[in-house]
Design brief:
With about 950 residues, the protein is an alpha+beta fold. The chain has 11 helices and 54 strands. The two termini are about 30 Å apart.
Amino acid sequence: MRRHLALCHLLLTLTLLTGGLPPTLSSGVSATPHRIEVEPALEAQFQADGSAGYLIYFRDRADLSSAHTLNWEARGKFVVQALQATASRSQRAVRTYLDRRGIDYQAFWIDNVIVVSHSDITTFQALTTTFPEIAALRGRREPMLIEPEAVAEALPASTAIEPNLAHIQVPDAWALGYTGRGLVIANIDSGVRYTHQTLVNQYRGTLSDGTFDHDYNWYDPYEQSSAPWDADNHGSHTMGTIVGDDGAANQIGVAPSAEWIACMGFNPRATDAGLLACGQFIVAPTTVINTDADPNKRPHVVSNSWGSCGNPTTYDDWYEGVVAAWHAAGIYPVFANGNIRTTCPQGLGQVTNPARYANVTAVGALGQADATLASFSLWGPTDQIDTLNPRGYPSLKPQVAAPGTNRSAGQQSDTTYLTLQGTSMAAPHVAGLVALMWQAGACLVGDYAATETLIELTATTTATPGYPGHPSDGPEGRPNQATGWGQINALTAVEAARTACGPTGTLVGRVTNAEQDEPLSGVAVEATTQATSRLTLTDSRGYYTITAAAAGVYTVTASSFGYLPKTKDGVEVISDTLTVQDFTMALAPHHTLSGTVRDAEAGWPLYALLTLTGEPAMAPDLNIAVWTDPARGRYSLSLPEGVTITLSATAWAPGYKSTEVSVPPLEDNVVQDIGLHADLVACTAPGYAISHLYWEDFESDDGGYLAGGFPSGEWQWGSPSVWPHRCASGNRCWGTNLNGNYANNADAHLTSPVITLPEHRAPPTLRWWQAYHLEHSRWDQAYAEVRINGGAWQLLWEHAQETSSADWSVKAYNVASARGGTLQTRWRLVTDGSVSYAGLYVDEVAVTVCEAQTGGLGIGHVREADTGAPLVGARVAWKHGETFTQRVPEDPGVDDGFYTLFLPIGSSVLTATLTADMSTGAYCDYAPTAAAVTLSTVGSTVVQDFLLTRAGFRFYLPAVMQNSP
């Protein structure tokens, strides 16, 4: 997309052009549709306030399963590319919709989630019904730092190694030469005082000449501050425990030779979006202004002393996708178990989220120089089952414990030290320990399960017996839900790490181009035996390195997009030895893949995005995105021979289903046309219109619907005098007790007459408007069902589990198997003997078909005449249709201000207009411009651009309105 600076500032609110809220989408004929999880508390907030902020989670998940076979650099790059591609593909339609509505949001690829700052209920309800790619809509989260406890007695200033480090035998690990050198550790905290005397030398942003480079080493998602700072002491203190050492009398950190980077997760403006941004920064650090992400600069370990809790605490997966991405990238996640608070009382199962997650190492707190459980440390177990590294205790929390009272860096000055206590102080010990272990055992780098297992196996048993008889406890209380497997022991852990890898060597080499003898970057080099596989990518100079490769004989293969693969058998890796294997690669023959993307039913060409993926999966240049020609729908690519291609096609215009087409390895030029199907349930694609096979609005009579079950008369026809106080349209509808709450011990149903449908080329859709206020489905249940051709009743809809309410909205389901036959629908309410609410209401029941009209498409741009700047929000209309110009967010070859509009065969007059929004101040008005266009062929496209001339500025002042030329 090419952007231009417009002379006039335009604030326009764009709406969906569907005549109301779009219906729910469904791909099944009679099966239950994709269900979007909507948190009851969020629904309640909208009902109370009419607006709210929320999180949008998407169904599509990147396949990161092969990441663990890659070396460090290749692993990070692969994970980021896969996550970004998945988010770009699955978020596209929702982001376009939010942009049209003028909604403020942040989109993240780290967990395929969008954070909406604030929207009205109309926008929210459309999200619940229109986009099947959405998995869940959840309220905003408010995680907190795990604040330290007050220290009853100040500890004396240290003159050497802190007692908490000595107690877990950290100095003994140092004596073996393991200080964390070569490893990078991050924290997500309140920031860090980077100039502190114990932290400045370990900061990765400190340059050899004493200056600083904060890019890729620090990120503040709230202020985008240019250098690290600490808002609370907390972050400096925890980082000091990880790496702190001033080279003299203040040895406060577990891994003093490791480097650190940090992300500001918590300041007075901290939000869930900020923590998602930090989670993303950890996988791919950026500049301080959040540009140019580089996964090669990611840390090895991330320490987190924050969380959220409730009473009771239950598992909340809002951050789990971030943690999963860390795992895929080889980053070790450590979380503090949490401290006792009013909302987090002591007792079983109170561990905070995300420490509660099964795939993180949660850390409890002990005394500074003893193995006694700290009184403030929260207990497990968790209610999420560990499938990654359970070791026989799948609900265990914490995994281990560490000293929870210690002296470390403060933020007031470069020489300030504070003594604090809390699980926040305990967790950084484990983060530092992982660095020591990964220095000692290179094969453990990125291997969470093996590393955590060694930490647990080498832990020292604590005096805490656990909770007698609890299923999370082991024999004689080890492990237990208070201290896990025990107190960490740095000496035994690094000794276990250095013997864990066995004999290993290093495989290196260089890959060059056979034609020019030039280095090839991004080549996938894979070394395999029957027992193992290691994969890496060449760097910008063509070199690759596979470290800690188990000694043995390997088959080594080099493959890259556009080149013929090369394989070398019998490559021997010898213990403690450097093995060199170079490759020279020849270009593969190339062939042309071309075709046209069209509407599968109407035949008109479509402006669409094609995303190419294929094998070899690690070829970085294979993830190609190309747009079709907007007027002809044509695309053309030159691709190498022997590559299996998958084409994913997504129309730019709304209302189309995406599709995938597999293309076998090319051996010659190939033409691959693609047909995209309009979503005939949503019926929002240009040129498609809804017609009714059946429609009942219940205004003149009850529609012949029968109320049955018990108690008699529970379903009533008329006007509700209680919530929702109105019908969806008109004055009459059906509901359960129009004058009060529904009955207890009821099993009441409302059944439509048998509806006969004609044989029709388009599949029918069953639609109705619905409102409900119901108790939790554990006690009261509501259903909508359909019976096709006299068969069994099949479920279409059921209300969410929680006690919840939802105002009038459309439900729509594909009932294609009823084409040329019959259907009946019914709504059923089953209740228990206590607590009742307003009930279930139904209005405007219809069976519709969605069909393409006879004609084609008009496309083009609207620009400002004086400057050529694209105009977004301009109205383009003919006498029976209209649309608005929009942004084109990803195509570098097409301007913003683009439109697509259905046109009939023959001549039409199009008019482009853009008028200022008088409520927002002084903005430009443009004179209308008209053009006659002729569409001569069914299924064709006509291009018509417009240039609009400014008509003047309009100013709005209190009680005064004036125009100026």
